[in-house]
Write a structure and sequence with these properties.
This protein is an alpha+beta fold. The protein has a single domain, classed as 2,3-Dihydroxybiphenyl 1,2-Dioxygenase, domain 1. Helix content is 17%, strand content 34%. The chain contains 5 helices and 16 strands. The strands form 2 sheets. The chain has an 8-stranded mixed sheet. The protein has an 8-stranded mixed sheet with strand order 6-7-8-5-9-12-11-10. The longest helix is centred in the N-terminal third of the chain and has 13 residues, at 87-99. It starts with 5 loop residues before the first strand and ends in an 8-residue tail after the last helix. The model has no long low-confidence stretch (mean pLDDT 97). It comes from Piscibacillus halophilus.
């Protein structure tokens, strides 16, 4: 079975309002859903994406208000890439990041592409990557009302970086279960160490994992500025159930079938302990809101709707004017 690419990535923040301001006002992404963590409705779950939050464009954050700082390390999702249309866009973004005093390494080359490594206000490890030479999975469409120039806007998630101590068991899951194939390697710009690239589906920036093998790092301790899990695109619920059956046959522990209302999922941990999710492309974020007004009010899945008053009373209001 073959995955279609990256679906979404979920990280931690300790401050929903500052997070919202950074990703919408500085990075110009659209907040496509303001909801809660379905497993803990006392905290926000914010979704950012392209014009309607198409699969492959969604960067999401759980708010954990008292979370300590992430301690970067091994067994982790160590960098999240965001795609922009071309090399010219990176010139725009270098100027914009500097204008807003966003920590960045400037424009460099990585795996034959131009990129800008940078960090948000909580030291979340991020990277803008140019789609100038991309021939794989197509990107999304920036929101025309973006705070950033939509001609240069973020069009989706790019390569996701994993840092692990043992390659072989993870490679086996990627290639034998998930349909990934080895696509090449390069030397990392700051460590000088080899990074191995795997791709799935149509390949390209929207369907890659970049794996750093490190035996010299302590295990990462998750906190604000860290990443919880990465999700991969699966066509529909039927395919999810086929994957679930295969996971069970292989004896790989998993969540079982999960209905997230906006998509259907199954979760499991790969051998180095990183949490993977397989998620369907639909139904999508316009299921319970008009596409023109996504993210403007608190959206709750049907099974939480009866608790709306209690949930809203426990959340600190956040100010969002799209």
């Amino acid at each position: 079975m073959e995955l279609l690419g990256i679906h979404h990535l979920s990280a931690f923040t300790a401050n929903a309002q500052k997070n919202l301001d950074f990703y919408t006002k500085i990075l110009g992404m659209r907040m496509v859903k303001k909801t809660v963590n379905q497993d803990d409705p006392s905290v926000y779950h914010l979704f950012y994406g392209d014009e309607v939050g198409n699969p492959g464009t969604e960067l999401t954050f759980f708010e954990i208000p008292r979370a300590g700082q992430n301690h970067d390390g091994n067994n982790s999702i160590s960098t999240t890439s965001l795609r922009v249309p071309n090399d010219e866009a990176l010139d725009y973004w270098k100027t914009r990041l500097d204008e807003y005093d966003v920590e960045n390494d400037g424009i460099i080359e990585q795996f034959g592409r131009k990129v800008i490594p940078f960090k948000d206000f909580e030291k979340q490890r991020l990277m803008l990557v140019s789609d100038e030479t991309n021939k794989g999975v197509a990107g999304g469409t920036p929101w025309e009302r973006s705070a950033a120039n939509p001609n240069y806007g973020i069009i989706g998630l790019g390569p996701i970086h994993l840092t692990i101590p043992e390659l072989e068991p993870t490679e086996a899951i990627l290639t034998k279960l998930m349909g990934f194939r080895r696509a090449g390697e390069y030397l990392h710009h700051s460590t000088g160490r080899e990074v191995i690239v795997y791709e799935t589906g149509e390949g390209g920036t929207g369907a890659e994992l970049h794996i750093h093998v490190r035996t010299d790092l302590p295990r990462e301790r998750l906190g604000r500025g860290g990443v919880h899990h990465v999700a991969f695109r699966v066509e529909n619920e039927e395919k999810i159930r086929e994957y679930l059956e295969e996971l069970n046959q292989l004896g790989i522990g998993n969540s079982g079938f999960v209905d997230r209302f906006y998509f259907r999922s199954v979760y499991f941990r790969e051998p180095n302990g990183i949490l993977f999710e397989l998620a369907t492309d639909g139904p999508g974020f316009a299921t319970d809101e008009d596409a023109n007004h996504l993210g403007e009010s608190l959206a709750l899945p049907p099974f939480l709707e009866s608790r709306r008053d209690q949930i809203e009373n426990n959340l600190k209001p956040i100010d969002y004017k799209p």
